[in-house]
Design brief:
Blueprint: H1 6-17, H2 20-28, H3 35-47, H4 49-60, H5 95-103, H6 107-112, H7 123-126, E1 129-132, H8 137-146, E2 151-156, H9 161-177, E3 182-186, E4 208-212, E5 233-237, H10 243-251, E6 258-263, E7 269-273, E8 279-284, E9 288-293, E10 299-303, E11 316-322, E12 328-333, E13 339-343, E14 346-347, E15 365-370, H11 375-378, H12 380-386, E16 393-398, H13 410-415, H14 420-424, E17 428-434, H15 438-450, E18 456-461, H16 468-475, E19 489-495, H17 501-504, H18 506-509, E20 522-526, H19 538-546, E21 554-555
Parallel strand pairs: 1-2, 2-3, 3-4, 4-5, 5-6, 6-8, 7-9, 8-10, 9-11, 10-12, 11-13, 12-15, 15-16, 16-17, 17-18, 18-19
Antiparallel strand pairs: 13-14, 19-20, 20-21
């Protein structure tokens, strides 16, 4: 019998009676789904019914953020020799090259190469298998059974797993026996609580594991000897699991370097205790992220925060403990009413003083999201920055608010006192979603007047700008500001990725060859042309606003 709280039943009943999206969410909230998760789903739906369709679309298509691309091309095809060319040159290639060719083909075509000639007969079976199902789910069992292994990579992302659930445990058992290295398993259809077979816990050869839309098996009774000794990357997208299950995986993965957790409803309490983790990326809501002991952690990337309190009414928390190599952190939401930021046991508030014991000197790239029209939020900036004295690149995202509660003018920013990282460390400032509000302009003027070593400022316009005159009225005054650094280059831009997909990209976030994954491609234009739009080249501004090409438009590289 369903004994859910009355308020939850009431919310779900409203959702069921409200349009198609609401009815879909009602079906998702099966009685087996934990109340806290179902309540959070209902609360988000009631808070923003119009926005739930976009969230649902992201939940159904997580591959763009968390899931890696398949290593084979779905468009690859085998072709017969041309009539005028009867020479089989491919068969003369060394075995290693033939195997490489076969490994890049879809599984059905790779297996068919055995019929080409005697030379090809054993190539497919001797090549580590790469299987991207591409709607071949009925044939998966046969492919897995026929190939002797090892299995380099298996992507099963197109199957409606509810129809193949009885076969799934057998598939996973074969993969475990045949030394699977990379596994991507995406449950294409609801329900959300479809149980992932516990066989997955026995895959000791895994180096990369990505799961989407599953209920994770209970680890409470799993033998202590169970572990993932080779696992280096783990991606979880809307995986229903207990916090102890995630703790279990982290504890049993001694070489894990990259962790990505994506989910809009499943409230996460993440305790990072790992000697190997280098990059952690959280996409969606969470209750608490506590970096307890992560001596190798270099990146903690957060995107799409809670947009409110957790289901029980408490604030979400980001707590930074032992992480001496942490270099990149953000986006941190400066909303003291709903989000707490802690360093050790110190809660950072507008008046909190930093001390040498509480500072995090290793951070070089910091990203903050702040609602400048909410006075209590904007006043957090000086306090937060004093805890990160060595920041060299500062990203500021201007958050939206429906109601202003007071703004800070230039005098108020100067009265906040010297901020050491702004004065002597920050070389690059990136200001995203600039709307031209008085508080935003005051902050930028304060920054220009205070930053002695500043080299580059990029101001990315909000999508709401529609004319050159509007841009001039909001940005033009910055051209006359006295700058503490005479070497600074100021750029006004339109982001080529206004939805911020680059922030949510696991590929960018975990790629350490990209120094700053928060930077995307931009169309930019020097601020000097904004001082007098009627005197300087207006075509440059138009190209910046509407993405047109022009000789004076340059690209800001990361």
């Amino acid at each position: 019998m369903d004994r859910r709280p009355r308020v939850l039943k009431k919310a779900l009943e409203f959702m069921r009676n409200n349009d198609e999206v609401g009815r879909l969410f009602f079906r998702m909230c099966s009685p087996e789904l934990p109340d806290t998760i179902a309540l959070n789903m209902a609360a988000q739906f009631l808070r923003d019914p119009d926005g739930m369709e976009a969230i649902l679309a992201r939940m159904c298509s997580p591959t763009q953020y968390t899931m890696p691309n398949p290593p084979v091309s779905a468009g690859a095809r085998l072709y017969a020799l041309l009539p005028h060319d009867a020479v089989d040159r491919l068969s003369r290639l060394p075995d290693a090259l033939l195997g490489d060719i076969v490994s890049r083909l879809p599984a059905k075509d790779a297996a068919r190469t055995a019929a080409l000639s005697r030379r090809w007969r054993g190539v497919w079976r001797s090549t580590p298998l790469i299987l991207a199902d591409a709607h071949l789910c009925p044939a998966v069992s046969r492919v897995l059974a026929d190939h002797p292994g090892p299995f380099r990579c298996v992507h099963i992302t197109s199957c409606e797993m509810d129809d193949f659930h009885a076969l799934l445990a057998g598939w996973l058992q074969i993969l475990a026996v045949k030394a699977i290295q990379e596994l991507v398993l995406f449950n294409r259809r609801w329900p959300l609580d479809l149980l992932l077979p516990s066989t997955v816990l026995g895959m000791t050869t895994l180096t990369r594991l990505y799961l989407a839309l599953w209920k994770f098996p209970d680890t409470a009774g799993v033998p202590r000897a169970t572990c993932f000794p080779n696992l280096r990357q783990l991606g979880l997208c809307n995986v229903l699991m207990e916090n102890r299950d995630l703790d279990f995986i982290l504890d049993r993965s001694p070489v894990l370097e990259t962790l990505c957790v994506e989910g809009n409803f499943f409230q996460l309490r993440l305790r990072l205790v790992s000697q190997s983790l280098r990059c952690v990326q959280i996409i969606g809501s969470f209750e608490e992220i506590f970096v307890v002991n992560a001596p190798r952690l270099e990146r903690l990337i957060l995107s799409e925060g809670n947009q409110g309190c957790t289901p029980d009414g408490s604030c979400s928390k980001v707590k930074i403990g032992h992480s001496p190599k942490l270099q990149l952190l953000g986006y941190l939401e400066l909303d003291p009413g709903n989000h707490l930021l802690m360093v050790g046991s110190t809660i950072i508030k507008a008046a909190t003083r930093a001390s040498p014991r509480t500072m995090i000197p290793s951070v070089r790239i910091l990203a903050l999201e702040v609602r400048f029209d909410v006075r209590s939020d904007a006043k957090m900036i000086p306090s937060v920055l004093r805890f990160f004295p060595n920041v060299e690149t500062l990203h500021i995202k201007s958050g939206k608010t429906h109601q202003s509660t007071g703004k800070l003018n230039l005098k108020a920013w100067h009265e906040s006192g010297t901020i050491e990282c702004i004065r002597s460390r920050v070389k690059r400032l990136v200001f995203r979603d600039f709307r031209g509000g008085r508080s935003e302009n005051a902050f930028l003027k304060f920054f220009f007047e205070s930053a002695l070593v500043l080299e580059e400022v990029a101001i990315h316009l909000d999508a709401g700008f529609t004319s050159m005159e509007e841009v001039q009225s909001k940005v033009g005054s910055l051209g006359s500001v006295k700058r503490a650094s005479q070497a600074v280059s100021v750029l006004v831009t339109v982001c080529s990725d206004p939805q911020g997909d680059y922030i949510r990209s696991l590929k960018r976030g975990s790629d350490f060859s990209i120094r700053d994954p928060f930077l995307a491609g931009y169309i930019v234009v020097p601020l000097c042309v904004l001082i007098d739009l009627r005197r300087y080249a207006k075509s440059i501004i138009i190209s910046a606003l509407y993405g047109m090409s022009g000789s004076s438009v340059v690209k800001l590289e990361s």
